[in-house]
């Protein structure tokens, strides 16, 4: 049985998306390294880049996984056996790096004599932020929990729809996608009703933005993009610049309105709890027709592709391993401006160098094994 994947079908424009997302995250974390206590508008704006970078990864993951699931439906490969193969391929892509970095983080706990988080075992099963705040340990992993559980939810819902409706086609895929988005939107509304009754302030980012049960719909917005790009490919390509413009206008418009009115999640809670994250996902998705039709030929195409290939490792190691380790040895508050610039350069060099090594000697060999005939035939 030949596996269904998008592994060998690299799209340069989507590599650009990955590169943009990870560079936004690195810029955000750079401010945490150098000026963690700054409240200036510039620093807060740069820190916000990280939030958008993660949302870009969510929508991109949904777009790629949605494409694979649609191919499963079109090939009439929607049984448990077919989706076990899908999960095995996905896990060989995401879990080895995750567990490697998790292990390194655990080792660093003992090296730096830091407190071990309670219920550490939850990190093994991606339940550390299922319905509660993420612990202050390996903090990058909050988004991996959302993605991994979304990879489970999508195929399971498709199988259920096939069992109930006695068939699976493009419309059942779309219905499952829209109902899932609706369910998690209602989940955030329930959160809003529950927590706004509490007089004390809460951390919106920790209690909602980084919690699995409120965020899985971010992946499913990418499913909508996959649906349109496959079944309405002509429109997807023809209106790519109009769609891109609308996405930019929506994104800038929402944030201009927030900035102009100085809106805060704890004050303007209904908008932030229920609609803000959805609008960001939609604005990002609207840019995908342009990016997915972007062909190679750019002056920096090789560099962009490399950053894209390293992006998963960069995401996992840049903060908890590189940045926090540097802060263990260096007191940033006493550094001169030149020393801070040098530290920033060191942070970026270490992040890219370690990520490149992980990709070359760990991630890439595992991906090659996944693509081997012996492995694909086994499942």
Secondary structure: elements and pairs:
Elements: H1 12-34, H2 41-74, H3 80-111, H4 122-125, H5 141-165, H6 170-195, H7 204-209, H8 217-231, H9 233-238, H10 240-260, H11 269-286, H12 288-292, H13 301-329, H14 337-371, H15 373-378
How would you briefly describe this protein structure?
Helices cover 75% and strands 0% of the residues. With 379 residues, it is an all-alpha fold.
Counting helices, strands and paired strands, the structural category is: mainly alpha
Radius of gyration: 21 Å
Percentage of residues in DSSP E strands: under 5%
The sequence of SSEs as H and E is HHHHHHHHHHHHHHH
Task: Give an overview of the whole structure.
The protein is 75% helix and 0% strand. It is mainly α. The chain has one domain. The chain is globular.
Features:
mainly alpha; about 375 residues; 15 helices
């Amino acid at each position: 049985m030949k596996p269904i994947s998008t592994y060998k079908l690299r799209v340069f424009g989507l590599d650009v998306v990955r590169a943009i997302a990870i560079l936004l995250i690195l810029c955000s974390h750079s401010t945490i390294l150098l000026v963690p206590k700054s409240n200036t508008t510039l620093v807060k704006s740069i820190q916000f880049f990280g939030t958008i970078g993660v949302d870009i990864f969510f929508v991109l993951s949904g777009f790629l996984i949605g494409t694979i699931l649609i191919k499963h439906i079109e090939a009439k490969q929607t049984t448990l056996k077919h989706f076990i193969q899908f999960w095995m391929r996905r896990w060989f892509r995401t879990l080895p790096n995750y567990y490697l970095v998790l292990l390194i983080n655990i080792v660093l706990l003992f090296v730096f004599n830091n407190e071990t988080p309670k219920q550490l075992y939850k990190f093994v099963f991606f339940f550390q932020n299922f319905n509660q705040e993420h612990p202050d340990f390996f903090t990058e992993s909050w988004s991996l929990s959302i993605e991994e559980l979304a990879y489970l939810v999508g195929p399971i819902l498709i199988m259920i729809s096939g069992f109930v409706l006695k068939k699976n086609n493009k419309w059942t895929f779309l219905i499952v996608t829209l109902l899932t988005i609706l369910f998690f939107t209602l989940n955030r509304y329930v959160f809003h009703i529950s927590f706004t009754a509490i007089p004390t302030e809460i951390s919106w980012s920790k209690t909602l933005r980084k919690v699995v049960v409120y965020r899985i719909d971010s992946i499913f917005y990418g499913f909508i993009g996959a649906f349109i790009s496959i079944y309405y490919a002509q429109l997807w390509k023809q209106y790519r610049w109009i769609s891109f413009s609308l996405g930019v206008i929506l994104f800038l418009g929402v944030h201009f309105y927030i900035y102009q009115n100085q809106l805060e999640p704890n004050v303007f809670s209904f908008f932030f709890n229920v609609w803000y994250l959805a609008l960001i996902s939609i604005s990002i998705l609207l840019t995908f027709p342009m990016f997915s039709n972007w062909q190679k030929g750019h002056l920096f195409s090789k560099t962009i592709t490399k950053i894209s290939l390293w992006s998963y490792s960069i995401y996992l190691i840049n903060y908890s391993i590189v940045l926090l380790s540097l802060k263990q040895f260096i007191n940033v508050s006493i550094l001169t401006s030149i020393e801070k610039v040098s530290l920033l350069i060191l942070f970026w060099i270490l992040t890219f160098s370690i990520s490149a090594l992980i990709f070359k000697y760990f991630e890439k060999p595992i991906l090659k094994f996944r693509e081997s005939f012996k492995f694909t035939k086994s499942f």
